[in-house]
């Protein structure tokens, strides 16, 4: 599953550390999700979308 987290995060001027703190996860979790190494839970995906001012559908795309 591909995602736009890094692009959206940078567009808001957030560092990985900032996003991790906001979501109460580790920076390593943010790195893993951004690099498509970890698919987040639905709860985390929804929180990410909310913090990044987007929808889950826009944030994550299935690999075709």
Identify the notable features of this structure and list them briefly.
single chain, 64 residues, mainly alpha, 434 Repressor (Amino-terminal Domain), two-stranded antiparallel sheet, 2 strands, globular
Biggest sheet features: 2 strands, antiparallel
* CATH C-level category: Mainly Alpha
Largest sheet, order of strands side by side?
A: 1-2
Shape: globular
The average pLDDT value, as a whole number, equals: 95
Identify the CATH architecture: Orthogonal Bundle
Distance between the termini: 9 Å
Helices, by number, come to 5
Order of helices and strands: EHHHHHE
- Summing up helix and strand content along with how strands pair, one would put the structural category as mainly alpha
How many structural domains does the protein architecture include?
Answer: 1
- What is the β-strand count? 2
Amount of beta strand: 5-15%
CATH topology: 434 Repressor (Amino-terminal Domain)
Helix content: 55-70%
Let me know the CATH homologous superfamily: lambda repressor-like DNA-binding domains
Rg from alpha-carbon coordinates: 10 Å
Ranges where pLDDT stays below 50 over 5 or more residues in a row are none
